[in-house]
Amino acid sequence: MAEEDFQNDRDVIDNAQGVLAGDGFSEFETIKEKMTPGNPSPGYTFALHCVQCSAHNAVAVSWIELVDVAAGAVPVDPDSGHRWIFHDKKATPPIRCGQCQKQLFLYMTPDQCQRYVRSGIQAGALDPNYVGQRTQLIRQQAGAYRR
Ligand SMILES: [Zn+2]
Predict the structure, then answer these.
(1) Residue 22 pLDDT > 50, yes or no?
(2) Ligand 1 centre and the CA of 127: distance in Å?
(3) Cα atoms in the 13 Å half-sphere on the side-chain side of 92
C-alpha cells in the first residue's frame, strides 16, 4: 500500500471517530435509518454518505446482526462472511463505499440495536422467541469464554 493511501485511511478513521463520538450515531444527522421494506421486513437500512468521496450509500443490516449487537456479540456479515468491526463498545458492519471502496463507518451500540429489535418485534417482522433464544445462547457463550 502506498504511503499516501495509508495516510488517507488514517484520516478517514480519525474523522469517523470525531463525528461519531457519543452514543451511537443518532446525533450524526446525515445517517438516516428505516426498517427495510418487505413482508416481513428483513432488517434495517441505513443511508449514509462516504466520508472519503461523499457518495451516498444504502446499507442493509439483517435482523440477525442487529440481535447479535443488541446482545453484546460481534456479528458476521451474512453476505461477505466477514466479522463486524468492534471498537470502543460500538460495532460497525464490514462494508465498503460502493463508489470508492473505502470502509464505511456505521457504528451502532447495543442499546441502539435493542431499540431496532423491539421495533422489529412490534412490526411482526421478528419472532420474539427467536430473539430470546439467540440472546440466551450468546450470553451462555460469553459466560463460557470467561471461565
Ligand atoms: Zn466513497
Answers:
(1) no
(2) 35
(3) 17
pLDDT of the residue at 21: 42
Q: Is 44 exposed, middle or buried (0-12, 13-18, 19+ CB in 10 A)?
A: buried
Distance between Cα 5 and ligand 1 center (Å): 14
For residue 31, is pLDDT > 50? yes
**Cα distance between residue 75 and residue 58, in whole Å:** 19
Query: 97 alpha carbon to ligand 1 midpoint, in Å?
Result: 5
* Separation in Å, CA 109 to CA 29, 50, 114, 126: 17, 20, 9, 19
Distance of CA 100 to the CA centre of its chain: 20
142 alpha carbon – ligand 1 mean position (Å):
35
Question: Residues 64-85: pLDDT tens digits?
Answer: 999 999 999 999 998 889 999 9
Domain extent for 91: 3-146
* Residue 14 CA to ligand 1 centre (angstroms): 16
Widest pairwise Cα distance in the chain: 50
How far does residue 57's CA lie from ligand 1's centre (Å)?
A: 8
